[in-house]
Amino acid sequence: MKNIDVCLSPDLLHLHKINNSIVVVTDIFRATSCMVTGFAYGVKSIIPVASVEECKTLQNMGYVAAAERDAQKVEGFDLDNSPFSYMDERLIGGKIAMTTTNGTLSISKAKTDAVKVIVGAFLNLAAVVNHLKNQPYDVLVLCAGWKGRPNLEDTLFAGAVVDALKDEYFVAEDSAILAMRTYQQAKNDMLGYLANSSHIRRLQGLGINKDISYCLQNDLYDVLPVLRGNELVIH
Amino acid sequence: MKNIDVCLSPDLLHLHKINNSIVVVTDIFRATSCMVTGFAYGVKSIIPVASVEECKTLQNMGYVAAAERDAQKVEGFDLDNSPFSYMDERLIGGKIAMTTTNGTLSISKAKTDAVKVIVGAFLNLAAVVNHLKNQPYDVLVLCAGWKGRPNLEDTLFAGAVVDALKDEYFVAEDSAILAMRTYQQAKNDMLGYLANSSHIRRLQGLGINKDISYCLQNDLYDVLPVLRGNELVIH
């Protein structure tokens, strides 16, 4: 039987063997929610890069560039980290370069060893789950967290994936059980469950409650971003 | 207001500033449960060491030596990692040297920077909580986990401490909220909640169900082990 596991922080990724695994990277607030939204609205590809400098270089080469640090847009870039910025017809068919505090770093960390890296958010939960049901590999859900620390929203998403796949995969490890039970506890009122989370407070301070509610919606889009080489494209 | 936070794995300790914190180290199955039991039964001091070699050196110097790796006693040592081994009148007034897979390593990691390191288990939960209520520092509960991975039982204990102190401390970080809510979800049937955990399965394979039930009992002993220099003694 295939295994499904959860890594609560990229700083714990070294503990996981992922050379037989599909890694689902998630950063609910807001990197992977932005990516899914962008593809749903017609973006052609997204290159996730770890540093602001690399992102700048790609911008100079003609990419639309999105850089976020500490939940805010970095000066001189084209897009911020709100999913609503990705609902823009000027981006249709476009190529985006993106760097964020946590999400793109997690993708960089996973891509060397994993069988495949896909991008997950509540917005494309069913697309992620359906894809995983029909493949032969183990699964690791990698939570981007916040600067190395586990967070509630990514843990909830990881739990949603485990919960949906628990009959087809072996749920062996405590992090996966913890995430699944947390999701089961919270699923009927995720916004309420997250009310006191550190990142919700950080984002509310920036006045983006609209983003929060948006990112917690299930299955808005049937798109599955997957990493091919250094580029995310639709599967 | 003082802060209380939780570190779900010693591999994440580098993310926490603990120079104004009391660190509560917990390793429910079974290192810190053994320590609390030992002190309750009259042990005078316990030196936690990180390696089997250091433990052997102290044994040769006359200490009663306890070494566990992968949940089993290492050959040539005096005590295994069952709390029932510490209910022995030959240990009254004795000095013990101890090394375990996760628990003693966590103590070693925390001791350099923390204001104070104390040892917590369900067996002395009230003693830990009462001590923390009456001091001016921040608190970090450090879960020993299993070889760097978070586990359910230590997370539950961390949540029990946060839950008991939530009116007197600021619960700011997601790991602390996650642990507290997990404890609230599980507290009426911790054994049931843990039924599928990885370490429970590991221990059950070794036939030590008795240890598991024992370690999940609250407030059996009013003792608080605290690190003084390199030695744990009763506060």
What would your notes on this structure say?
2 copies of one chain form a homodimer. A 5-stranded parallel beta sheet of chain A has the order 7-2-8-1-9, sandwiched between helices. In chain A, strands 3-6-4-5 form a 4-stranded mixed beta sheet. In chain A, helix 4 crosses helix 5 (152-165) and helix 5 crosses helix 6 (174-186). Chain A has one domain (2-234): Alpha-Beta Complex (putative 2-phosphosulfolactate phosphatase). In chain A, 35% of the residues lie in helices and 22% in strands. In chain A, strand 10 and strand 11 (231-234) form a beta hairpin. By secondary structure, chain A is an alpha/beta fold. Chains A, B: Keywords: Hydrolase, Magnesium. Chains A, B: Its EC number is 3.1.3.71.
Shape of chain A: globular
Tell me the domain tally of chain A: 1
Interface with most residues = A-B, 29 and 29 residues
CATH architecture of chain A: Alpha-Beta Complex
User: How many strand segments of chain A?
Assistant: 11
Oligomer: homodimer
End-to-end distance of chain A: 25 Å
Task: Determine the strand fraction of chain A and express it as a percent band.
Answer: 15-25%
What would you give as the CATH superfamily of chain A?
ComB-like
**Which parts of chain A are unreliable, with pLDDT below 50 for 5 consecutive residues or more?**
none
Strand order of the largest sheet of chain A: 7-2-8-1-9
Question: What's the tally of helices of chain A?
Answer: 9
Organism (chains A, B): Lacihabitans soyangensis
EC number (chains A, B): 3.1.3.71
Keywords (chains A, B): Hydrolase, Magnesium
Pfam family, one (chains A, B): 2-ph_phosp
